[in-house]
Amino acid sequence: MLEIRNLRKTYGDLVAVRDLSFTLEPGDILGFIGTNGAGKTTTIRMVSTLLEPTSGTASINGFDIQRDPMGVRRLIGYMPDFFGLYDDVKAWEYLDFFANIYGIPSKQRPSVIDNVLELTDLTTKRDAFVQSLSRGMQQRLCLARCLVHDPALLLLDEPASGLDPRARAELRELILELGRMGKIVIVSSHILPELAGFCNKVGVIERGELLAFGGVGEVVRSVQPHRKVHARIVGELDGVVATAMACAGVSDARIDNSGSVVIDLQGSHEDQAELLKTLLAKGHRIFEFREEAVNLEDVFLKLTRGDVN
Amino acid sequence: MIRLMDTFESPLLGERKRAIRKIMNPTTSKGTNTAIRALILLLYLVLAVYGLSVDNSALLAVISFALLTALCFLTPALLHSAIAGEREKRTWDFLAVAPLTASQIILGKFSAGMSAVLMLMLACSPFFLMSTFRPVDPEMSLSYPTTFVTQPQYVLYIALTILTFSMALAAFSILISSRSRRAFTAQGVILGLEALVLLIFPTFLSAISTDRIYVRLLTALSPYSSVSGSLDRAVEGSDFYGVGSDALPMLIPPLIPCATYLIFTVLCLIWSERTIRFADNDVRFVKARARNS
Ligand SMILES: Nc1ncnc2c1ncn2[C@@H]1O[C@H](COP(=O)(O)OP(=O)(O)OP(=O)(O)O)[C@@H](O)[C@H]1O
Ligand SMILES: [Mg+2]
Predict the structure, then answer these.
(1) Can you tell me the distance from the alpha carbon of B45 to that of B66, in angstroms, rounded to the nearest whole number?
(2) What band does B242 get if pLDDT is binned at 50, 70 and 90?
(3) Residue among A14, A96, A129 whose CB faces B286 most closely
């Protein structure tokens, strides 16, 4: 379990991270989003014991980042936003070097290395020199390095930058798999659609302040309490709006340019089902009825402009 | 006590493997490494040819000074980037975030550098042995009547002086490296200070006076005068090859400079341990009108 309590970092007058608090349980995958300079990297570096917090603290499985940094370091895998790799060694030697540092007995190392290379899809590059790997492959090697000691918490600072769409999809799968294995994963990214796919929690940070935190659905609902339902109907549209408006939980209904009915729903899924039933009962021939997908980008734009409801 | 044990069983000893692999494996080398390797090989060949053609004490003098001078450059070349280079290449974070204490990192780096130094010393050891134990050619000893190595323990002192001096230099390189942001700056500072201490300062001192006792004491601490003192003793009864034997009679036994270098080594290592994280928490320039106002 990761517990962050009132974590704060100031640089002179500048408050880079302002009293951040949240908790994550094993299996949680947190999408950490924020504008440039919001304080994501600063937060992640504090949790990974690289930066000393000005005040506040965090603990991972009971190990405090300030009182027991060694214990914390054994539990975390950190992938920085910018990094270099030793380029005079082969991929497996690089991993072997770190496996040694993390105290993995030399007998187990070859199998551990093969496993992480497999996970990150680098098996074919096992004997290639690090300097001969492409940027994206180096990124994956770095991720492999984070995994050699089977950490409980992964801190990935913009891990997807530099990856091709296929590698991104694979990274998503890998992160989901890590979540299923019961690890806590924190992923910071600017590419929002990417996060929406696999995070179960989001944290939105701006100017060092956590504007929103919670389950993806929760956060989206806090920003847009209305769920939007799109209905498309064959033939007559007359009366649809009036019928919809009469249903429980509906706050607004209109017909948009493309001819589909957009209904703002404040109620539960129960109400949504009732709405569909009523519309059908009134003889409207619905061929599509869907709730608008969670749109993190909207949430992000709304929150970071400061216009939260 | 347990912490101390932990320190010596440094997991960063893998660093040693990496350093040796770097030196030994020519396919990965960059230009400078190849140049250094070529230079060492050339020096070695020249010594081998030369060693077989001169008498023992001349060989001892040449090999001692050549090795000492080579290490004056090699040790900083190996270690100037130990930490500054990692910072510069952004590989430092991975060490900083690993369960390693500062002293483990320092000792890992130190032992990596020293393994290379020891490799070089081992490569030179045949010359030392040859100069000490090679039977003297009667014809040669006629032409140079006083060039027997009669006191082999002084050869050992020379080797010890060179070893401990390069330990001090290695520790000093690590200290400067852990205090610098750029490998290049570290290299400049190390070589500059080395030149100051070994060349400029002694020249300056001898220009003021050579009689004052403190001047002679200070000069005796230089590895060059310590080695030349030992050379004179090794070749008994001769001051033919002893560079400074007239000007600087051996004031202090050769083990005192060695001890001094060892103390300096320990001090530098301790200081590096204290300062190694100096760049991690630094505050970059922040404008007064901070955004949170
Ligand atoms: N060493 C430092 N000295 C002074 N200010 C700093 C330092 N490091 C970060 N900052 C400031 O702290 C704030 C947060 O920076 P941080 O790197 O955490 O942002 P970020 O959310 O990671 O941004 P990005 O998305 O661009 O990576 C910024 O305003 C930055 O200028
Ligand atoms: Mg960042």
Answers:
(1) 13
(2) very low
(3) A14
Domain encompassing residue A243: 226-293
Q: Is residue A148 part of a domain?
A: yes
- Give the C-alpha separation, A256 to B68, whole Å: 85
Asked whether this complex has an ipTM greater than 0.85, the answer is no
Atom of ligand 1 nearest to the CA of A190: 25
What would the pLDDT profile of B263-273 be if each residue is shown by its tens digit?
Answer: 999 999 999 99
* φ, ψ of residue B59 in degrees (nearest 5): -60, -45
- Are A44 and A127 found together in one domain? yes
CA of A4 to the centre of ligand 1 (A): 19
A140 in any annotated domain: yes
CATH number at residue A27: 3.40.50.300
For the question of whether the overall pTM of this predicted structure is more than 0.90, the answer is no
Under 8 Å between Cβ of B40 and B70:
yes
Interface test with A, best of B25, B29, B33, B93 (most A CBs within 10 A): B93
Which residues in chain A have Cβ-Cβ distances shorter than 8 Å to B31?
Answer: none
The CATH number that applies at residue A239 is: 3.30.70.100
Residues B7 and B232: their CA atoms lie apart, in Å, by 41
**What b/e sequence results for A116-150 when a residue is b if at least 16 CB atoms lie within 10 Å of its CB, and e otherwise?**
bbebbbbeebeeebbeebeebbbbbbbbbbbbbbe
Beta pairing partners, A185: A29, A154
Give the model's pLDDT for residue B246. Answer: 45
pLDDT on residue A307: 43
- Do A200 and A84 belong together in one domain? yes
Beta strands in A125-238 (DSSP E): 153-157, 184-188, 201-206, 209-215, 227-234
Least confident of A79-88, A94-103, B134-143: B134-143
Q: What is the pLDDT of residues A274-295, one digit of tens each?
A: 889 988 888 888 889 888 876 7
Q: How many domains does chain A have?
A: 2
Q: Does some domain include residue A298?
A: no
